[in-house]
Amino acid sequence: MKILALDSSGLVASVAVVTEEKTIAEYSVNYKKTHSQTLLPMLDVIAGMIDLDLTTIDAIAVAAGPGSFTGLRIGSATAKGLGLALDKPLVAVPTLEGLAYNACGRPGLICPIMDARRGQVFQALYRFRENEIETVTEQTTIDMLELIESLNRRGEQVFFLGDGVSAHREKIEQNMTAPYTLAPPNMNSQRAASVGTLALKYYAAGKTQTAAEHTPVYLRLSQAERERAEREKAFREKEKQEEREKAARAGARE
């Protein structure tokens, strides 16, 4: 079994080829270029270095969200294009589960967090039992202070990782009363190898989809969609206010 894995859900662009026995190759970049400039060139480099014939892969794994709207769309479009061209199934791995798998085998609660702006994070909770990952809470968007309060109530050891750590480090350090550890830099970012390794388990369980079926998981509206909704709400409220004022004037004339 050979899996090609892609992750462009966050700040890092990452490509890997994995089997049940090993990670054959992995290429990750956390720099200024956009993922649209890096993802396919990275795949080309890997394919050339390991003499990879893409027709020999069994499936294409992709970090399916949540995460950056642009990054998710690029990863999804790349995976779908490859799936259609190669006639291969896709394996959609939840972004936060893939991130948590960086800490495979670690005791306590694994809490991947990705900065979602406005004081919020994309978050889920996992734990490992004999190196098998278990979902404690599903992926969601939550205020960081609210997350900290819920973790303090649990009182368990927590391992934080993800770009949300640097964005909310001060809140964590000032408000966490439960024992916790912050991931070192080598474990703190998305890795396609983790996505691919999880995809092997998903594939074995029959959790695949066609390229046409795949859609990213955003969890919330994009900033542009939120701003449009706010404008539409303000416009409707203005219309209602004008109608009330018009009715009031008509009543006064009577």
- In the CATH hierarchy, the third-tier topology of the domain at 105-187 is known as Nucleotidyltransferase, domain 5
Which runs of at least 5 residues are low in confidence (pLDDT < 50)? 221-227
| Secondary structure tally: strands | 10
Strand content: 25-35%
Instruction: State the distance separating the first and last CA atoms.
Output: 82 Å
Anisotropy-based shape: globular
Helix tally equals 8
Q: What strand order characterises the main sheet?
A: 3-2-1-4-5
Question: Topology as H/E string?
Answer: EEEHEHEHEEEHEHHEHH
Per CATH, the architecture of the domain at 105-187 is 2-Layer Sandwich
Overview of this structure, please?
The protein has 254 residues and is of the alpha/beta class. The protein has a domain at 105-187: Nucleotidyltransferase, domain 5, CATH 3.30.420. The protein is built from eight helices and ten strands. The protein is globular, with a radius of gyration of 22 Å.
Main attributes of the structure:
10 strands; 8 helices
Describe, in short, the structure shown.
With 254 residues, this protein is α/β, with parallel strands linked by helices. It has helices at residues 35-49, 69-86, 95-100, 144-154, 163-167, 169-175, 192-204, 223-253, and strands spanning 2-7, 13-19, 23-29, 59-63, 90-93, 109-117, 120-129, 132-143, 158-161, 180-182. It has a domain at 105-187: Nucleotidyltransferase, domain 5 (2-Layer Sandwich).
Element layout with pairings:
Blueprint: E1 2-7, E2 13-19, E3 23-29, H1 35-49, E4 59-63, H2 69-86, E5 90-93, H3 95-100, E6 109-117, E7 120-129, E8 132-143, H4 144-154, E9 158-161, H5 163-167, H6 169-175, E10 180-182, H7 192-204, H8 223-253
Parallel strand pairs: 1-4, 4-5, 6-9, 9-10
Antiparallel strand pairs: 1-2, 2-3, 6-7, 7-8
